[in-house]
Amino acid sequence: MTPAPGRLLRTRISGVGRYLPERVLTNHDLERMVETSNEWIVERSGIRERRIAADDESSGTMGARAAEEALASAGLRGSDIDLVIGATCTPDGMFPATATVIQDAIGAGRASSFDVNAACTGFLTALSVGSQFVASGSARRVLVAGSETLSRVVDWTDRGTCVLFGDGAGAVVLEPAADGEPGGLASPVLRSDGALGDLLYARGPASARSGAGAASGVPAAGDNGADPLRAVASCIVMDGRNVFRHAITAMTEAAQACLAGAGLEASDIALCMPHQANVRILSAFARNLELSEDRVYMNLERYGNTSAASIPIALAEAVAEGRLAAGDRVLMVAFGGGFTWGATVVEWSGVREPERLSAVPGPLPSTAPPP
Ligand code: COA
């Protein structure tokens, strides 16, 4: 479909879905692995448990499960999709793109596919890219899947990071909004500052062996003669305190710039869908924006930080819980490694078949008893 010259189409999210692996790792389980406590983790992060992918699961397989649910809720099949965009920083391999694994699994044989990596801002970035494909008429139906297997890049002996992250996937389907129908992404703001890259990173197997691009403290190639590629890769390395500080500033600025660009006030937002990193970060952000906490969606106590998967998982849960009505304005905001950050407002249009969404588990008891 080709739009009239100069006329952009509005994009609607017509389907949402999510997939969480079955295995639950609680804070009490972590107490047996590192020097930590359930109380410390809950107080400092708000997280009580996270999901861990099974051995035969990956960002590709989990992304495909979330994509299948998103297609079902949109009343579509894989063959209806023109483009699959994967948002992940834990891809199945260096190549091919994880999006191609998802494309194959959902039977989107006509689609092109590629990945976007902007760490925890990956979903917002991919959503903006996909929306522009729809708006320009280059693709009619786009599937965007945020999917992460962070448990495989976490150092399970580092209590400063291993308590925070989890695995999972979420997906949305994008289509053009009809005239008079709600929809559209207003004023997307995407930013990055590579000078802050050392605050939060995981080196890949192709990173530089020496010089400015090399990771400090990572063994040089050849130290592990059996597998030189693995010798330069690293687990997640994080300066938690500085990430915390930058995250609040970055999310606040991105959200304010986005609202100003869209001509909206925080009071116009029905529900804010932030990247689920830390309850204290989200509370400070909400205070800065004067958003009451009941308008800030949080499910991080159950899943921890799932990076590019966290916003689409939260969105799918909010829809399954009936928290959104057509015409509502949803503020999405994220930050992550890179440093990357961004925000966008989505005018909610409603999915066609919400009854096809899997049920959301109830809230956890506030003091989970030790197993
Ligand atoms: N259990 C118990 N103690 C821990 C711990 C754990 N899991 N992790 C760290 N500590 C200790 C530290 O060693 C330190 O001890 P010390 O005072 O004896 O040196 C103490 O707790 C305080 O550490 P600090 O790093 O100042 O804690 P904090 O209040 O900043 O909380 C984070 C730590 C990681 C929870 C917090 O900084 C954070 O959430 N940062 C942002 C991380 C994030 O969101 N990353 C993803 C971005 S997308």
Short structural description:
The protein is α/β, with parallel strands linked by helices and 371 residues long. It is built from eleven helices and 13 strands. Coenzyme A binds next to helix 2, helix 6 and helix 8.
The stretches of 5 or more residues where confidence is low (pLDDT under 50) are: 216-225
Number of β-strand runs: 13
Rounded to the nearest angstrom, the radius of gyration is 20 Å
H/E element order: EEHHEHEHEHEHEEEHEHEHHHEE
Proportion of residues in helical segments = 25-40%
Structural class by helix and strand composition: alpha/beta
Mean pLDDT: 92
Query: End-to-end distance, in Å?
Result: 56 Å
Q: Which small molecules are bound?
A: coenzyme A
Portion in beta strands: 15-25%
Number of helices: 11
Based on CA inertia axes, which overall geometry fits?
Answer: globular
Main sheet properties: 5 strands, mixed
Strand order, main sheet: write it out: 1-7-6-4-5
Give a structural overview.
The protein has 371 residues and is of the alpha/beta class. It has helices at residues 27-31, 38-45, 59-74, 98-106, 122-136, 159-162, 228-232, 240-262, 279-289, 300-303, 310-320; strands at 11-19, 23-26, 49-52, 83-87, 112-116, 142-149, 167-176, 185-192, 200-201, 237-238, 271-274, 329-336, 340-347. Strands 1-7-6-4-5 form a five-stranded mixed beta sheet, with helices on both faces. Strand 4, helix 4 and strand 5 form a beta-alpha-beta unit. Helix 3 (59-74) packs across helix 4 (98-106) and helix 8 (240-262) runs parallel beside helix 9. Bound molecules: coenzyme A. Coenzyme A binds next to helix 2, helix 6 and helix 8.
